[in-house]
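Researcher: Next entry in the queue.
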Amino acid sequence: MENKRQRPLRIAIVDDYAVVVAGVAAFLADEHIDVVETGASTSVHSDVDVVLYDTFGQVQGRGIDLEDFVRDSDALVVVYSWNLEPKLIEQVIAAGARGYLSKVLTGPQVVAALERVMAGEIVILPGAEEASGEGEDDGDWPGREAGLSPREAEIIALVTQGLSNKEIAARAFLSINTVKTYIRTAYQKIGANRRSQAVLWGMQNGFEPDTLRTIDPELVLRTARTSPGTAG
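Model: Structure for this entry, 232 residues:
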């Protein structure tokens, strides 16, 4: 059977942390895709098929305006997250996302899911438990060098942004005890004894949101590309 897609999938990777989008781009680099644009959580400028929205460090329970990412585009939004709470997934799909993918998925699994989205499906792949992704070499996040797990890092990002434990729990669909556990283990790893120390550490270690946007000038416009099979 013929390959349905005659050109690479064109995607934008959106998040407020440059290290996160760079990590996702590197993770997907060997797949059959063109990463056209990466950048902060604002409208996407390029003509892409899919916006892959990485939720790292985001206040996920509120304010997810999916239209902001594709204001002048027909691109489909797919959320890429460690947070697999069913209520959050339901809310995001109801808001218009066409997919919700776990970060435990491999590169080929992510791309296969994006192709299904392009074919008209709504794709929800929560994957295995989050713990199975801890310590993996794929992707990147602030605080990784200090030993923070992805979820610990997300919580420290929200702490650095000034959210209380109660606000983090409500907006990330986590129990207050779960939030406290993440904070306790994260504090041990970064050497913090109180919130003010954690905020200062976060500000000094890449937990303040970025505004960097990158657009590949060779990919920004759809052009006639080399026909399949010409390149190895």
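Model: The two ends are 20 Å apart (CA to CA).
Researcher: Noted, moving on.
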